[in-house]
What we know:
By secondary structure, this protein is α/β, with parallel strands linked by helices.
Amino acid sequence: MSKSPAPSLVRNQPLPEGTPHVPVVIVGAGACGLTTAIRLRDAGMDCVLLERDQVPQGSTALSSGFIPAAGTRLQQSKGIEDSQALFAEDVVAKTHGEAAPHLVQAYTRAVPQAIDSLEAHGIVFEVLEGFLYPGHRALRMHAVPQRTGAALVAALERTATAAGADILTEALVRELWLDGDRIAGIGYVRPDGGMEHIACDEVVLACNGFGGNQEMVRELLPEMANADYGGHVGNDGTAIAWGKQLGARLADLRAYQGHGSWVIPQGALMTWAVIMEGGVQINGEGKRFHDETHGYSEAAVHVLHQPGRVAWNVFDEPLLALARTFPDFVEAEKAGALRTAQNEDELAKLLGCDPRALRETLAGVAAGRTDAFGRSFKRALAAPFHAVKVTGALFHTQGGLDIDEQCRVLRTDGTPLPNLVAAGGAARGVSGNDVSGYLSGNGLLSAVGGGWVAAGTVIDRLKA
């Protein structure tokens, strides 16, 4: 296949004769695009999803697939005390007040509606119980039983297809055709290098962020310029490129989800639940270096500042049992990531550190003790010890096109473009403008909640 053209605009030219028409084109068939399509089909709206890969996957398939939501039917059935207002407070608190308030409100209201609707379509969800993710004051993580992002995407794809949405894969959208300031259609590249077109009334950008664009990462996220990238290669900044050409406003470009538990050399994600329930991160000098309970996103930066840009997740038998309930960890263990030491001296040898420094560090992990970083522990870690070598990684960006509470893309003067909406990775999220603002699950909150909102906007406009 020849090199595909860069994202571009085609202004005030008629689409090729015979170009097919569909009311709504959705660019990207991850969680955001598929959620959008399902709601559109429920309203009787025809749509087509254009997906660059052979099968829908995107950033969602590489995630754990956990969607935070308050007030769902499932959560209420379990007697979990929570509310959308409390959830919104947690999102805002994690960003120290920097999250876009209109999107926090819109997404925390929309995401339980989306999950309840998806359940009604037959998707089975569970609420993860037994532990709280950083920054959440209630059990609100919803997951399909397989507990993987790939399984979530597969369930959404089946649901969208059953609802009548058309999904065209290996269709890399590279052109927006403009008639004045309205988008009249799109052009997409096929595997043979040919360009095909679709005319439309509305466009939903549910495509990507820019984590896979090394030049943009170096410019906007310099602290992650040399970090491992655990996201999708399709996150190439296409939506931002179009936004600049359209005169759209951009927002929160310094926001992203990092992860301080990227297993090396296996290149896999290790669940942060082990850390939240008492595990610790120790560097090559045998020392802890931060309060791990603040969150796995900012932990990425902390880990990258350690000698060799690595750390070890250290935990014990009860926490190993917890870890093995997560498929990602099971696969990493099968690949040889787990190391075991029968005592502190063996653990020091494994970590390559001074045994005295390690003993002092582990002595600080004690029931009822609050350490110098402000973390309190429920219990000490007991031998045998387990360890997994990790580094800090970049997963996906949280900034992009500026949007209003209806997910309409805004021009630099704050007015909305007439028939373009965006959500998920293409748009600004609710993580403020810094790595530390990422609350666990914010990516799928923006994707699923944003996809639900975007669909509602399109439905209202087409019915007007």
